[in-house]
Amino acid sequence: xxQDELKKAAALAALDYIVEGSIVGVGTGSTVNHFIDGxxxxxxxxxxxxxxxxxxxxxxxxxxxxxxxxxxxxxxPVYVDGADEIDHGFAMIKxxxxxxxxxxxxxxxxxxxxxxxxxxxxxxxLGRFPLPVEVIPMACTHVSRxxxxxxxxxxxxxxxxxxxxxxxxxxxxxxxxxPVALEARINQIVGVVTNGLFAERGADVLLLAGGxxxxxxxxxxxx
Length: 223
Ligand SMILES: O=C[C@H](O)[C@H](O)[C@H](O)COP(=O)(O)O
Prior knowledge:
Blueprint: H1 3-13, E1 23-26, H2 30-39, E2 48-51, H3 54-62, E3 67-68, E4 76-81, E5 85-86, E6 92-93, H4 100-109, E7 110-118, E8 131-135, H5 140-149, E9 153-156, E10 167-172, H6 179-187, E11 192-195, E12 197-198, E13 205-210, E14 213-218
Parallel strand pairs: 1-2, 1-4, 2-3, 4-7, 7-13
Antiparallel strand pairs: 5-6, 6-12, 8-10, 8-11, 9-10, 13-14
Helix pairs in contact: 1-2
The structure holds ribose-5-phosphate (R5P).
């Protein structure tokens, strides 16, 4: 199977986690695009969706799925999203598509985070994928200096502006052995909006597609 076929298999498996009659939290990216396309077939069984990016909102709307403002809803039983890397404790690096801030907000509201990935995303230690950090534009140089002090090598994502009007620094060379601590530390740097570590609020379920099908893994409570 190709990587895209594996992404699609993981995405379609996530349809089993949708709560009938609810609003569904929807992430961003090529794996989630398969999920949105699959969700279109269940349109009559959900109220609609909350989206984490302009791109996902457009795709949802094109399928006739109503997109709600997060501020207008009371609860979100399930959030479905991909990841760039996920470790064995279900901490993730996200933001390869630059949607990390809205993704983290929607994930924070959700009761259950279902992560959909092909098997190449599973790692022992996070950090080979450069860690995206969303930054207020005027703070890029300051934040870069601070990130270097933490041992990383930040590179500005050229020509890219987030849905929130900010910039992305991709931080190379980190070996992230304590994702919860690093997530908090980077968020303390003035000018940082969000970083792409999803560790304090990691995934609850991992649907991991490989050669032998889709593994359905639940986070163990002790994480
Ligand atoms: O900003 C993008 C998101 O965090 C994506 O969920 C992540 O980059 C994975 O994307 P893909 O499914 O395209 O590999």
